[in-house]
Write a structure and sequence with these properties.
This protein has 336 residues and is of the alpha/beta class. It is built from twelve helices and ten strands. The termini are close together. It binds S-adenosylmethionine and iron/sulfur cluster (2 copies). Residues 14, 16-18, 21, 61-63, 89, 125 line the site of one iron/sulfur cluster.
């Protein structure tokens, strides 16, 4: 497993306006005037990643597919032999664009899919037209999967509006040949009561939704050992029951948390700031570290040793349950 996880926001722009992402967008807006990461700065970041022994970079945002020259960023990262991932809501993923991104060297795609219902997805995303684009993206990725080699992850957030749909999204993930399904817990849930599951929803999820997920694994995954590993994993979601109340309040950790992300993760923002973990997405706090060049990451990790204390309780990092249903051997950075 590669030690480091490096990310960057290549753009802060996004056509959507998901409510649970708005705090991070506000935080970014306050800090960042420029909306696009300069490609020269990106190349310096790639050099610095190689300099500390990193092998992987995730291009996120905002919505990265809005950048007409996203391919150039991918090519730069490949020049440094990095495994390259793009996070997308599917907005700009057509057959032609996908082919061009893969030709540039893209290794991994994470697509977030929050609903399979047009009205619901567009309500969650706060954007008309996003559903048709997302469905076209899924079709394009499915087609490319038969001829090209890349890792495909479908991510969703388990929330009030969609928790009953999770087995359907899982089924689609299997049908479109995704390698991994990540139903994430909601981050910043303590500020998003409307999106977060209450205790009753969590009970409903564990009693009525999880069995449907298990059934889907049983019926749709031919490899019995992969199916049974995933079925076992289902039982970890929202468990133990004694934490149901905490989950409903967006509390994921108790006491000092020995987070595996610290000292192995960094995110470069368009204004040249580096941030060390999920906390800074929503709650920027006072710690800023300016990226200044090839040696920056060494200095950055030296300064980020202390745990991020009280905010950790609201952060699901380390608690997410992933479902892996392929034997794809592409170098995924980790299976945390
Ligand atoms: C900020 S988005 C950027 C990429 C793209 N716009 C998208 O929506 O997939 C990166 C990832 O963060 C996730 N995300 C955003 N807000 C979140 C939240 N409050 N809790 C958990 N995940 C969240 C999205 O689902 C997505 O997988
Ligand atoms: S589409 Fe992605 S970046 Fe845009 S608001 Fe939603 S989660 Fe945030
Ligand atoms: S807030 Fe805490 S748990 Fe979350 S990523 Fe940061 S250090 Fe880890």
């Amino acid at each position: 497993m590669n030690e480091y996880i490096f990310a960057t926001k290549v753009t802060t722009a996004c056509p959507c306006n998901c409510a649970f992402c708005s705090n991070r967008k506000q935080a970014h807006k306050k800090r960042e005037s420029n909306g696009t990461l300069a490609i020269d700065l990106f190349e310096e970041y790639c050099k610095a990643i190689v300099n500390v022994g990193g092998k992987y970079i995730c291009l996120s945002g905002g919505e990265p597919t809005l950048l007409s020259n996203l391919e150039e960023y991918i090519k730069v990262a490949k020049k440094y032999d990095l495994v390259v991932r793009v996070n997308t809501n599917g907005w700009g993923v057509t057959n032609e664009r996908l082919s061009s991104l893969l030709d540039a060297g893209l290794d991994q795609i994470v697509m977030s899919v929050y609903s399979l219902d047009k009205n619901k997805m567009e309500k969650i995303r706060n954007r008309e037209g996003v559903f048709d684009r997302a469905m076209a993206a899924l079709e394009a990725i499915k087609n490319a999967k038969s001829t090209r080699k890349f890792l495909f992850i479908i991510q969703t957030i388990i929330m009030k509006d969609n928790y009953k749909e999770i087995p359907d999204i899982l089924r689609v993930a299997i049908n479109v040949k995704a390698d991994i399904f990540w139903p994430s817990y909601l981050e910043d849930a303590q500020n998003n009561n409307e999106a977060n599951l209450d205790e009753e929803d969590i009970l409903d999820f564990t009693e009525n939704v999880l069995p449907k997920m298990k059934h889907c694994f049983e019926k749709s995954i031919e490899n019995k050992s992969i199916a049974s590993a995933n079925i076992k994993n289902c039982d970890k979601l929202f468990k133990p029951d004694s934490l149901r109340n905490d989950f409903s309040m967006g509390i994921y950790h108790h006491g000092p948390y020995d987070c595996k992300l610290l000292n192995r993760y960094a995110c470069l923002h368009v204004n040249g700031n580096l941030t060390p973990c999920t906390r800074y997405e929503y709650n920027p706090g006072e710690i800023y570290f300016k990226f200044t060049g090839t040696d920056s990451l060494k200095e950055f990790f030296a300064q980020c040793k202390k745990p991020v204390e009280e905010y950790c309780k609201y952060c699901p990092e380390g608690e997410h349950i992933g479902f892996d249903f392929s034997n794809n051997d592409i170098d995924e950075y980790s299976k945390l």
